[in-house]
Write the structure tokens for this entry.
Amino acid sequence: MRAAIVEAPGKVSVTTVPDPTPGPRDVVVSVASCGLCGTDLHILQGEFAPTLPIVPGHEFAGEIVGTGRDVTELAVGDRVAVDPSLHCHECRYCRVGRGNLCERWAAIGVTVPGGAAEYAVAPVANCVKLPDHIDVKDAALVEPLSCAVRGYDVLSGTLGAEVLIYGSGTMGLMMLELAKRTGAASVDVLDVNPDRLGTAGLLGCSRSAAGAEELEQPGGWDVVIDATGNAGAIQDGLGRVAKGGTFLQFGVADYATTAVIEPYRIYNQEITITGSMAVLHSYERAAALFASGVLDPSVFISDRLPLEQYPQAIDRFKAGIGRKIVVEP
Ligand SMILES: [Zn+2]
Ligand SMILES: [Zn+2]
């Protein structure tokens, strides 16, 4: 089969590799679409993936074309979205229900071959069957949405809250859509890129601006979400949290990024600073939300490229062009 492959740091190509074979409880998925995200850039830089070469792609959906010996729940022809999480279910964190912090954390497309290929293998337990009205080529969006759902699990209450989101890339826009669904009183969005900000306006944010100082909000915001990973945005956001409010670190910062906190204010105003990492018991619900129409795929997917153009898709993503870029093998 054809597959994108990261051979060494900075080196990605599309080549022919052996077809994958499923284990007893695995299925083989003919990939319909696979999204790119910042994690793929980290892998290409030689981070995250413990061993190269690796077939990347952890955001994908497709049709089942083969099943392992002991699979009874799904069959050839079923269309599925795939949760890439491979938690060990044995370590301390898995045993307390926090598999996304697993000591042996692994994921399809990060530590084992992923969806940027004609075929990918996944445990049947990681597959969610798609309803008939969903175009399987749009369902690569379920994985990033499941990360956003995890973010709202951590926030555990936005009903009536005034929300501020830094960043209106794919993830910021998903956080916007879920803020509306979870009953936020208002959702303001910040971005220095006017095109992206325009999309936030299109999706119905309350106010949008290049910086928070442009918005009148004397008491700050009950919930501040960073969806940029940018040091300047994070530092600014920490200072915009209202009394009793919460700051959520959702964007992936570089390892070396630091920010200054004000311990007296955290104490005196009961500020919560928290984070959310990837997917935790949130994939099934993301698929249900996706099926209910929470996202308009025509807004969220800006580029659809053939698999052979995976390196070009990476370049386009690096250049910050568009929103979600997918390859369609
Ligand atoms: Zn991703
Ligand atoms: Zn574990």
In short: The chain is about 25% helix and 25% strand. The longest helix spans residues 142-155.
